[in-house]
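INFO  loader      accepted 1 record
INFO  loader      residues=504
INFO  predictor   begin
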Amino acid sequence: MSRAEGWTRDQIRGDGDGRAERHAQRSRSPLPWLAAAAFLCIASLAARWPGVAMYDSVSQYGQGIDGDYTDWHPPIMARLWSLLRLGWPGTQPMLLLQMLAWWGGLGLIAAALGRRQRHGAAALVLLVGVAPLGLGWATAILKDAQMAAALLLATGLVAWWRLDDRAVPRWAAALAGVLIAYATLVRGNALFATVPFSFALAHVAGARPLWQRAVLALVAMVAVIGLSPLINHRLFGAEPTQVERALPLYDMAGTAHEAGLATLPGLSAAQWREAERRGCYSPYFWNPFGEPAQCDFVGQAVAFGDDQRPHLMRDWAAILLAHPFAYAAHRAGHLNSNLRFWVGPGEGDAAPPLVSERNDLGLGAPPGPAAAALVDGGKLMALSPLGWPFLWLAVALGLLWAGMRTTSAQGRLAFALALTAACMSASFAVVSIASDLRYHLWSMVAAALALILMVDARALDIRRARIAGAVVVALGVIAALGHLGLAARIYVPVPPHIPPAAHP
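INFO  predictor   done
INFO  writer      dumping tokens
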């Protein structure tokens, strides 16, 4: 063999090694996953442009126009919208922000996985983002979507560095903190998700022992509860609407209904009998007590009257302490409705909206074929086990139990996601007053991502994972029987009541 021939063969062998190395580098590149997320973001915007404005959205946009803010819906979103509308009126800038955060967060997680050649997990992460039930709600302009999108972007920022065992830069940690703070303020009960999530994310990088973080999280929750009204009223200038009275009103009515009480404080026995006759109380939601055409006379007498019922909280505590089992039955019934466990087929307020709420503010536009297809997919998904919040709560709890000993950065991130999902959904056992599926948008997305990351990291105790999986399947089978028709539908329309002047 000549020297030239040997050199040629070595060169060929070297070129082959180079091609293999370049292929490996391409397979580790995050760019394809970031590009895929960007494409899905553009497609989502095109499908739902200019965004769907719901009843809450219309109210908040109107506040931004008038400059008269209230705290019935957290005013931070209305304030942000008032700034955006100066340069771009309508729903478009909010939809753009939501989709950039939604796909930005998912894209960063997928790209971080792809960089480690975990391509199957990366693809599943993006699949979570295109699931029609979640994406349908994420493209509606409302506080639930804003919360979920902000937390997704915060998660993506942490994942980008921590999945490679790198420290999160200070600027990225600060940005994630701002996003979590926004998510906390944009929903009244978001603190049950964001505070545990914050402390769990800190553990992703290694931090304090578990018991210390648990104590600090409880202290932080109390601080958020105390500071939020001050921020809403003094910083954002929102007028108080006594929205916090809706929960004790609902609890008192529910407890009185379950215990068979003669009346409620501030309400005559004859009025309560009329309310019961008309079916004002529902495990589904508190709404009839706030609707003038239905049972508002109960709400006015017990919580929202001119005197503002100064002893409402004392009356609430007294009824709960006197009838704890009735209160527990009321909360259990509502939690069942909220999580959609033993409910009838086609329970309402599940599918994402197709059209905007009627308004004279120029919000929304007629939907196109892509939007209709997305919503139709969301309807089908809501009917399936993938659209049942209780099942995702069970998944999150199972992951916490089976993955509690994980030490890897990816396992810890998955644990943090499972924790925020479980805490948010479980909080509805005591603080919820309605059963809309959109309240679980973040919980369901977080639980799905936790499952993907935990399984991919092989961070689960196998024995515990099998037990947890069996429990989830068993619960799903039981619930399916109800959804197929064995359970009665919980939502029952309340007929209009007689005029207030004619009340007993």
